[in-house]
Design brief:
CATH architecture: Up-down Bundle
Helix content: over 70%
Strand content: under 5%
Number of strands: 0
Distance between the termini: 28 Å
CATH class: Mainly Alpha
Order of helices and strands: HHHHHHHHHHHHHHH
Oligomer: single chain
């Protein structure tokens, strides 16, 4: 990329990394709970506990990896180095997560839990570095919003491809063996991130003077500074709390959807149909998001987004619970709205990082950007427990008798619990104060501060 100027080409390279990454992650969010109960034969309650423990470990890893990325700089660049190192390790342990070892149930659960934590630790290195690169590639709010939009659009396309490809790959190419199918998608993740590593060679270079300049200007972050950049940033805390609720609801939907189509609709092949239309609706939402943000701003776009999906899942329960086609139709309207916020939230976290720098004079952008994944991780952790314990509460087992009462209870678990969580997320966002106009003012002030820091150094 000549002169490090922003181009459409780099935005496509940036988004393609999300394409391959999300196809791998979709397997975990959609099929891991089902794999544990129906293949590894771990009870629903034990599965919920296993996922809670593993995902708490994953959440802790977000903090640790974010701090390491913030404080270190390897020879391939501050952020892009992790796109080279982490993905192959992720691929190995992601495959082990879906390997049904011939062990007693307790040891099997322990091995899967350890594999999950190691896999997701290295996921965090690559994912957080990828996010932080957004602030290096995009120098203005408009460029960062373009990157955020492209990221979202490629995520949507990956959902379409995943919906079309995974079940045929699992049942055909892999012969029903999850580990073979997962290995294929995990290798694609490696090449997606390595492509970004190659494309950003001239953008994120090793800078031997980086730490010297920060120390001279008094802006180098200590461990205490990094945590202060979160807990003294009230706008970041608010958006993170709203995101925890939102992702708890949404990941619960994804984790339960396979159970719905197998045990309520009675047709596993409809999982692929659901994800196909889910991806198409998401892509449409990502295209509409740009116009909606321009019309009502980021804050009210997020509120509209969460409200739409919450309302649609209430309508599913009331009018379409046992009708899979009606379920898919209403769910697609909901996910179309959900995509509005997915498009812009990485840019909103950068806004919070700019707000924090404006208040403190210390730039914790890399660490703050790692916090974008923290609400997702917390939501994933809580959803794993909610799914497992919820299934146990309705007396689910792989041999459960399918009665009207069971299908009604399962449908309620799939719809009403997520609707309440996502609806509460929308309510919280009314307290968010970083309007687009205010962010532009903050960035102008920050540009002056950064210029002063350069002079001091």
């Amino acid at each position: 990329m000549e002169n490090n100027k922003f181009t459409n080409s780099i935005s496509y390279h940036y988004g393609f990394g999300d394409f391959t990454f999300n196809m791998m992650m979709s397997i975990a969010t959609t099929y891991f709970a089902l794999f544990l109960t129906d293949v590894a034969m771990i009870s629903a309650a034990a599965m919920g506990t296993l996922l809670l423990v593993a995902r708490i470990g994953d959440g802790i890893a977000v903090l640790v990896t974010g701090a390491i990325i913030q404080k270190t700089q390897l020879k391939w660049g501050k952020f892009r180095s992790w796109l080279l190192i982490a993905p192959p390790i992720t691929a190995i342990f992601f495959t082990l997560m879906f390997t049904n070892f011939n062990l007693d149930p307790v040891m099997k659960a322990v091995v899967m839990c350890i594999s999950y934590i190691i896999a997701h630790t290295f996921v965090n290195f690559a994912y957080n570095a990828h996010l932080a690169l957004m602030g290096v590639i995009g120098k203005t709010p408009e460029e960062r919003l373009k990157l955020s939009n492209k990221k979202s659009q490629f995520l949507c396309l990956s959902t379409i491809v995943f919906g079309l490809a995974f079940v045929p790959v699992l049942t055909g190419f892999a012969g029903g063996n999850y580990n073979i199918a997962v290995a294929l998608f995990a290798v694609l993740q490696v090449f997606g991130y390595w492509n970004i590593f190659r494309a950003t060679k001239e953008i994120d270079k090793f800078d031997p003077d980086m730490n010297v300049m920060a120390e001279a200007a008094g802006t180098k972050l200590s461990g205490a500074d990094m945590f202060a950049s979160i807990f003294k940033n009230n706008q970041l805390l608010l958006i993170m709390a709203a995101d925890v609720l939102k992702w708890l609801g949404f990941i619960s939907i994804l984790g339960l959807i396979a159970y719905y189509f197998i045990y309520v609709a009675g047709d596993m092949s409809l999982i692929g149909t659901y994800f196909l239309w889910h991806g198409i609706a998401s892509f449409a939402g990502s295209l509409l998001a740009v116009k909606i943000v321009k019309a009502i701003g980021k804050k009210y776009t997020v509120i509209l987004s969460s409200t739409m999906i919450a309302v649609m899942y209430v309508l599913i329960k009331l009018f379409a619970g046992t009708n899979p086609m009606a379920f898919i139709a209403l769910a697609c309207i909901g996910v179309l709205g959900f995509q509005f916020s997915t498009n812009i939230e990485p840019a909103m976290y950068i806004d919070c990082a700019e707000y924090g720098f404006n208040k403190s004079g210390k730039d914790g952008a890399a660490f703050i950007m790692s916090m974008y994944s923290m609400p997702i991780k917390i939501g994933v952790a809580l959803s794993g427990a909610a799914i497992g314990w919820g299934l146990a509460a309705i007396k689910y087992s792989p041999t459960v008798q399918i009665t009207p009462e069971f299908t009604s209870n399962l449908t309620s678990l799939v719809t009403l619990f997520p609707a309440v969580c996502i609806g509460l997320s929308a309510v919280l966002m009314f307290g968010y104060q970083l309007t687009d106009k205010k962010v532009n003012t903050i960035m102008e002030e920050n540009a002056i501060k950064r210029a002063q820091i350069q002079k001091v150094a």
